[in-house]
Hints:
- This protein is an all-alpha fold.
- Helix content is 78%, strand content 0%.
- Residues 209-217 have low confidence and may be disordered.
Amino acid sequence: MAVPGTRGRWLLHPAAKPALFLLCLLPLAWLIWGAATNGLGANPAEKLIRATGDWTLRLLCATLAITPVRTLLRVPALARFRRMLGLFAFSYALLHLLCYAGFDMGLDLADIAADIAKRPFILAGMSTFAVLLVLAITSFQPLVRWLGGRRWQQLHRLVYLAAGLAILHFFWMRAGKRDFADVLLYGGILAALLLARVALRWRATPSKIAKKIAVRA
């Protein structure tokens, strides 16, 4: 039986992070190739907007899965990939926003502002991006040190708010077509990850209390 601290030691290999980096770039490479070869269908602009939004959600779910998976499987080395996944989620969200602003709105800021006020799903999407922007900016070491570990952890719990807003954005967008299959899938994944987080915190509480009692004794 493997010692918990030694599981997934291959994740510590120097090539592991570059491999993940390239893997996260593959969807973008596929979209660029599709755009260059007219392979994005009859409405390439819509395909780019939808695809970058989908990959934002997928990478958000992957980021949120790191903590419960590494805890349940006892693979602490997974934690080293969380920041990269989170930054890629932000990067695809930025691409999603740029595709919407460029292809749908012609980069007209007045029209974008009016669209935010008029359509709730756009407001939810912009709110998601605002939260992800804050989390991305504060992911770098100088700001982590400035905030301090405790405040940084509290701030980065907002990733659950970002994920919830992203699901709401997705739900309202699909409501017009009454197509909720993907919304239910991502919503179910997010709910499962939230429940796993709560369960792990609840399981850890008795041991923390016992440690405090032992220290006081």
